[in-house]
Amino acid sequence: MTAVTMDKVTKTYPNGVTAVADLDLEVADGEFLVLVGPSGCGKSTALRMVAGLESITSGELRIGERVVNDLPPKERDIAMVFQNYALYPHMTVEQNIGFALKLARLPKDEIRQRVRNAARVLQLEEWLHRKPGQLSGGQRQRVAMGRAIVRDPSVFLMDEPLSNLDAKLRAQTRAEIAGLQRQLGTTTIYVTHDQIEAMTMGDRVAVMREGRLQQIDEPEVLYSEPANLFVAAFIGSPSMNLLEGTVAVDPGGGNGAGGGATISLGEQSLALPASVLAERPGLRAFDGRKVVVGVRPEYLGDATLGEHEAPPDGARLRGDVELREALGSELLVHVRTNCRPAVTDEVRSVAGEYDAAGVELLERQAAGEGAMIIARFDARSRARVGDVAEMDVDVERLQFFDPDTGDRIAGEVPTAPATAQPAPESEPA
Ligand SMILES: Nc1ncnc2c1ncn2[C@@H]1O[C@H](COP(=O)(O)OP(=O)(O)O)[C@@H](O)[C@H]1O
Ligand SMILES: [Mg+2]
Asked: Which domains does the chain have, with CATH numbers?
């Protein structure tokens, strides 16, 4: 069953800003769906429309079978947890958690029972008679959760509920919330700008950019098959390395059979075996044209260790090691290459998201400094700052994107569907 459905939902504020455009979303019963994207992309607006705190300009919103576009918040059977979960300072934890039930005039015994249950689930039993001021940040956050849980809603809506916690507590609390949601089985829509939070918590993750849905899928699929450059750049840490390349399909490859391709990256190049081209036939249409080549740090290995078994000839990149981060379990090396980084609007918007200097850095690399690539080497690697790093590239795992549209170049051969286009009669059988 579908718990929440958004059908071409659009929100244009009175000042003319379209915060959410044509959003299609189906949240399954009991699912934990995360909405993620850079700040200002429309996440809170989308959530507030589900809550009924913001009117819908066009489209249809359903909770269960019911169209709720014009239903007031309190009739929607939802509970929301905000970033600023203001607790009533003069009330005890017990009173804070039970407040909404008291307003709803539930019998005292029932309120008591429900609050006790919530407190047990949240491990707040010992603190029921304390005031919020006597609690830690994490405990206050759990009280805010408790206020939502006692109402036993059909849907939880959470808007960046962890952003007031420090990093360590945030990591712990996100595991707690995900565990709690599984235990309660309540459909949840969770908003965050933090892609790690999204990837670790969500059954599925919906990525938004500038009011539009980019991709919705399981975390693993977003990671391994990003629909476009924005998702590719946004998901993953360290992020995917994105380089500008030019495709040359080997001559004599024929109609899809045999033959590989060469991706030229300025003075370096990567040879793609036929298998790679067979997996991504769409790449053939880019013969002689520019593409964006994406490679995740873990698919670059220290060549001196032979990390990627028997790389085909020419599947190597090299550059100067400028920085090494030994994480114990692995080694992150920042390698200055003479390749050009891909600089598109999508890449720019991700580069500028966390670091104002990010875009400038990228542009300097494109203007001649050369792309900085991050590789995740095995911990046994001896790579040192100042060394030339030879990196084996796992070419089977490369991703390719159309620099004009930003779309991933994947399986489909770009032709019209067979049903729509009968074969020309002149075509020999
Ligand atoms: N009440 C409002 N009036 C006008 N514009 C708004 C209002 N609320 C949000 N916006 C704009 O809508 C866009 C999306 O905002 P929001 O949904 O808060 O994004 P997010 O939660 O992803 O950061 C932004 O451009 C923001 O400035
Ligand atoms: Mg927001």
From this structure: 2-225 (3.40.50.300), 234-401 (2.40.50.140)
